[in-house]
Structure formats: structure tokens, C-alpha cells
């Protein structure tokens, strides 16, 4: 049927509203990107502390030692990275020197930043220098990939067992698993921590972060609902041909369940990449930090005046998620739709 004038007006309003909402949602990302590539001196003009510095500055400083003494008295900052003169006053950038002395920097990354032209007034270079950013990136990538692979495999197996291999008490156990979805993760944080550190004696290593994040009731539920909708005739034919249950799972169920497997893999990778609370609790070594925990540490060490450093680190941390979204958005939407219909 052809659209009426009212339908077209409604469509225009819907498109306008969605476009406006998209712009509003993109504003933080745009602001973060601009701050990451803006020179530190320009960023300081918009920092609230700048006005306080100018207001307290009752005299013109011509000596750096005098400036340090004054700043420690009024601003209680320990050390400084640079001091730029402007109109007879000093524009201060607070940055602990030890963050630069003990930084772990990969040479390939600096070659890339120089090629991109980021080192003219290097907010992004400071971002890498201000902490173990590359190391945290590598830790997060390793943990995210490991959790994703193991979670997809184990949750798919559990979903197959609950949907196609009924056993005594399977329904009760499944409903108990669903009930755990309603329990906030913060409630089980302390028992889980004691179980991992004392019961399993895993300490604060990668295994302590990975193991509790593998099994997910939501993943088991999605897998079960999807696999339950697959025709049983295919499994019966495979059994007649002498295929084992494990062979049926890998040769029949997995190829037919690729959409929901891809959806859960993307959800798991994103959720693990941005995980904060559990890695913060279970890891006590900065060399084992994930990105979200490292960003919080970087925020404290950089100080309130180094907005560009924190924003640059946040931008680098978000790049893999942006790439993944654009690569898998069609597959993700298709998988969600198919999973809903199958359920």
C-alpha cells in the first residue's frame, strides 16, 4: 500500500528523532577524540583549575624553584612535567616524573605515532608514556580472546545438553541457572573471591580472572533456546550413521548454530574487554591489569589537569570495540533476530 501523507510525516519525525539521538550519543566519543589529539596547553584553557591558578598567582614568577615552592604550598602537587610561560605567568602541567622514567614503551608503537604525526605536541605520546598502556592492552586482548573461546564452547555444550540430552533433574537445574541471573554480581563477589584465591589457590593471575567469566547463565539460556529449535531428525540420522554425541555436537549442532555462536562471541568479547570490577578485585599486580583497571590507575597518576592523557588512553582502549562493531554489525543483527525467532 502507498504511504499516506501522515505516514510520511511520522517517518520523517522518527528519522529526525533517531538522528538527533545518535548525535547526542556520539558527543562523548567526539569529545574524547578531540581531547586525545589536542595539545596539552590548549586543553588546559578549558580546565577549571586554570582559573584557580591565575587567581592565586599574586606575583610574576621568573624562577622555576620559586614556582615549585609556591605550587606545593597552594596546590599540593609533588612534581611537574612542563611549565610554559604566558603573559608573565606560568601555565603548569602536573605530571609525575616517575611515570615517564618507568614507562614500558614498545618501539613499534612510537614509530607508528611518529608516522601519524602525533608527536608534534604529543598528547598521545604522553598517553603511552604515562603507564603500562601497551602491556594492559595485551593483557586485555589475551584475556578477552581466552574467555570468548572457552565461554562459547562450554555454554554451547551446556545448551546442547539441556535441549537435546534430557537427564534426571535437568529442568530443575536449568531453572536454578536462570534464577542466578536475578542475583547481582556484587552479591557473590566476596564468596567468589574467596573460592578463587583460597579454594582454588589461583592467586591474582590470569586464570583467576578468566575462570569465573567463562560460564554465563545468559549464554546457556540463549544456546539452549536456539538449539532446541533445530530439527531433531538431523541428530537421529547422525546417530544411525554411528556418530557419537560429541561428534553430533561438533558436526551437526555447531555448523547450524553459527549465528547464535557469533552473537555470544561478540557479546562475551565486548563484556570481557570492558570488565572492571572483578579484575580490579582479583589482580594486585599492575603488570597483570586489564585496560579498564589500568585506565583508572592512569587517571589517578596523571592528575586532574592531564585530561588529554586519560582521553587518549580511553580512545586507544575503545578502538578494538569500534572495529568489531563495524565488522560484525550485520551478522550481529541477523543473529539476534534468528535467535529470537528460534526461541
| Strand order, sheet with most strands | 1-2
Oligomeric form of this entry?
A: single chain
Kindly report the average pLDDT value. 74
CATH structural class of the largest domain: Mainly Alpha
Report the CATH topology name of the largest domain. MetI-like fold
Described by the principal axes of the CA atoms, the overall outline is globular
Major beta sheet, specifics? 2 strands, antiparallel
N-to-C span: 31 Å
The total number of structural domains is 2
SS element count, helices? 18
Quick synopsis:
With 343 residues, this protein is mostly helical. It contains 18 helices and 2 strands.
Task: Tell me what you see in this structure.
The protein has 343 residues and is mainly alpha-helical. It folds into two domains: 53 residues, no CATH class; 210 residues, MetI-like (MetI-like fold). It has 18 helices and two strands. Strands 1-2 form a two-stranded antiparallel sheet. The longest helix is centred in the last third of the chain and has 36 residues. The radius of gyration is 27 Å and the shape is globular. The two termini are 31 Å apart. About 19% of the residues have low confidence.
